[in-house]
Amino acid sequence: MTRRTAPPSGWQPPAEAELDGRPIALAPLATEIADRYFADYPDDLERYGDLARAWEIHDTHYLLAWALGDVAGYVELERQVSWLARILEAREFPLDHLAGNLLIAADVVTARVAGSEPVAERLRAAAALVRSTPSFH
Fold it and tell me: Phi and psi dihedrals of 93, rounded to 5?
């Protein structure tokens, strides 16, 4: 019996987060990250079908919000990414894709959000953490 992937449900991801008191809309960033992600990992579209994009955008909203929250000092991005990696690994999702997503997010944030280098640094560090996960190899 094959378990079918369900659409994102439960708590909706945050629509925005703050950087130095400025609201940052997450949807445009998550959409651009998703576009780049699927250019790099088109096999996810085949593997997950129509739900691939919904999950990519959903999870990326959270990753961005956690990274921005980490810079503000009220979220630990690496802790949250470790939690997400365990869930994704249990679902047999390739962790190298998560690491790739974090690196793409760092590039997009740097290009689109002024003063976001600390956010990008945290995203890159989280990617390195995922890549250092023993099951990654």
Answer: -85, 135
DSSP bridge partners of 46: none
Give yes or no for a contact between 115 and 20, defined as CB atoms under 8 angstroms apart: yes
Sketch the domain layout of the chain as residue ranges.
Answer: 30-136
pLDDT in tens, the chain (137 residues): 345 566 566 678 899 999 999 999 999 999 999 999 999 999 999 988 889 999 999 999 999 999 999 999 999 999 999 999 999 999 889 999 999 999 999 999 999 999 999 999 999 999 999 999 776 54
The whole-model pTM stands at 0.92
Q: What is the three-class DSSP state of 23?
A: strand
User: What are the backbone angles phi and psi of residue 63, rounded to the nearest 5°?
Assistant: -60, -45
CA–CA gap between residue 107 and residue 122 (Å, rounded):
12
Contact 86, 64 (CB under 8 A): no
Cα separation, 101 vs 123, whole angstroms: 9
Helix (H) or strand (E) holding 104: helix 95-112
